[in-house]
User: Fold this.
Amino acid sequence: MPMDSSKWIDVNVEKNHYHLDHFVIPQHYEKDLSSILIPHGVIMDRVHKLARMIVDETTGPLVVCCILKGGHQYFADLVNCIKKLTTKGGKTIPLSLEFIRVKSYKNDKSDGVTISMTEEECRELEGKNVLIVEDIIDTGATMVKLLQKLDEYKPKSLKVTSLLIKKTTRSNGYVPDYVGFAIPDAFVVGYALDYNEYFRDLDHICVISDHGKEAYAIN
Ligand code: IMP
Assistant:
């Protein structure tokens, strides 16, 4: 993945280091985070721009697919923005919403990929413009597997937006159509991204501390 791409904002710890004391953090997570990587306000501004880019390149109705659970906050904020925007031709975009449950992580390690979608839900996508909304691309394995499955049902178009992409040597090279931020190879939480179901109730995207990893580990 080229690191200097203008397709996304390159976040690195030297350039974008926010001390935990600079923002409000839920008291119950104070010891569990080492730094704030992307403050909530910056996320919201970037989501607005991503919505603009998506609307500019969309003609006709769109099926927006939320990847649960981690993608739900980005999905909700993105859909809210898309609803209020119009295309260059002054048209609003009719939206329908789908939800797909994907599970792949235990602690901070990938643990195989499971996708829950019924045959009927898959068939609904035939001939439609589909936009998949994901929280983060790490190795890319989850998204490649999901795209292979959905492609079999012949959507008219199949695009992906991910709020985050990790700069990691474990990447399989997959890059989504619309990316918010490229982040360092660290385990991040917040804005619905979890560590064993914790930290979804944190607004900023933060790096988890060793204390946090231990406190919420599953054996
Ligand atoms: P991939 O298959 O390695 O690309 O992993 C993608 C999935 O793993 C995402 O949908 C997340 O659920 C999860 N994931 C990967 N990295 C992180 C992280 O840093 N924090 C939280 N979840 C992550």
In short: Residues 139 and 170 are 5 Å apart (CA to CA).
